[in-house]
């Protein structure tokens, strides 16, 4: 199966053909995928070289002229390194763009910590008005890329990952999807975490919601699943643990609830390893998730051998 990033250049190349407003700005990464598109649209496929601050600034300049810029590089170079430009060139000036990242939290461990960005969405959360898509399958990535480009002049971040669920689900660029229903709590699985969550919760009386658009956070869907009684909510995110706990708590402000945020830990892993090893180290493999989720939900019910909270 191809990857989400394999879909990026073909989809955006077609969008360049279909919409004269679309422009692509690259910072060396991904240039080869746009060779043919650059021949057809030399004025709308731009490579600024390894200059990530310029990547954002050039995109903002295009937006000022009425274009719909799509900006692409690794997440750490797209959000973290040029954050001042994201904040000022786009946010402060009220300009829209589509930021499409690669490498996610640790998709390329051999690249080291410079190429890891588990805090990207937490960083964007300090700014106003961003839509954030986290697809879990290449087919979903294609749909959400089209949603992002078609979203008027909004600010949109599309987080592509080499990790993928086995099957794609219908996504609409807005709402969470109910995948499994239960009565003892709600687990929100974000993007490529769905397969692991479904395996981890097999046989447990838990609702599983699938989230591929996490900003705006679909509070109404969470409220419907939580109901009016005391609820236990577990968020399983493929980036920094706890990124969405505040959003979940805000959605349930008038309902007694507890929230457990599972994701990438803040501690830095200083060995390259493999993606599965990183997942296990952060407790995001199915076995670890099952242990952590059952411990949390059993503690609430006062099950034998578990402390009450």
Automatic annotation (TrEMBL):
UniProt-listed PANTHER family: PYRUVATE DEHYDROGENASE E1 COMPONENT (PTHR43825), TRANSKETOLASE-LIKE PYRIMIDINE-BINDING DOMAIN-CONTAINING PROTEIN (PTHR43825:SF1)
GO terms for MF: magnesium ion binding
UniProt cross-references to Pfam families, sorted A to Z: Transket_pyr (PF02779), Transketolase_C (PF02780)
Species of provenance: Streptomyces xinghaiensis
The protein's name in its UniProt record: Transketolase
Coiled coil: none
Domain Transketolase-like pyrimidine-binding: 2-168
């Amino acid at each position: 199966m191809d990857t989400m990033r394999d879909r990026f250049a073909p989809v955006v190349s077609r969008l360049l053909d279909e919409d004269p407003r679309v422009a692509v700005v690259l910072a060396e990464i991904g240039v080869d995928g746009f060779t043919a598109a650059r021949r057809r649209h030399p004025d709308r496929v731009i490579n600024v070289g390894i200059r990530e601050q310029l990547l954002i600034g050039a995109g903002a300049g295009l937006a000022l002229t009425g274009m719909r810029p799509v900006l692409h590089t690794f997440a750490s170079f797209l959000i973290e390194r040029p954050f001042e430009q994201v904040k000022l060139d786009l946010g402060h000036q009220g300009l829209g763009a589509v930021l499409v990242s690669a490498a996610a939290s640790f998709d390329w461990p051999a690249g080291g910590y410079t190429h890891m960005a588990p805090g990207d969405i937490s960083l964007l959360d300090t700014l106003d008005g961003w839509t954030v898509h986290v697809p879990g399958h290449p087919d979903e990535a294609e749909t959400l890329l089209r949603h992002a480009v078609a979203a008027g002049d909004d600010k949109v971040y599309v987080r592509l990952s080499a990790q993928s669920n086995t099957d794609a689900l219908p996504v609409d660029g807005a709402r969470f999807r109910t995948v499994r229903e239960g009565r003892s709590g709600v687990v929100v699985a974000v993007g490529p975490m769905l397969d692991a969550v479904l395996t981890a919760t097999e046989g447990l009386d838990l609702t599983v919601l699938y989230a591929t658009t996490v900003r705006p956070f679909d509070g109404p869907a969470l409220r419907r699943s939580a109901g009016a009684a005391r609820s236990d909510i577990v968020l399983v995110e493929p980036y920094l643990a706890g990124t969405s706990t505040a959003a979940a708590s805000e959605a349930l402000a008038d309902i007694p609830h507890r929230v457990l945020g599972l994701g990438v830990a803040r501690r830095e892993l200083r060995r390259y390893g493999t993606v599965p090893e990183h997942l296990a180290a952060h407790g995001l493999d199915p076995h670890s998730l099952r242990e952590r989720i059952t411990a949390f939900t059993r503690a609430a019910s006062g099950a034998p051998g578990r402390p009450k909270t």
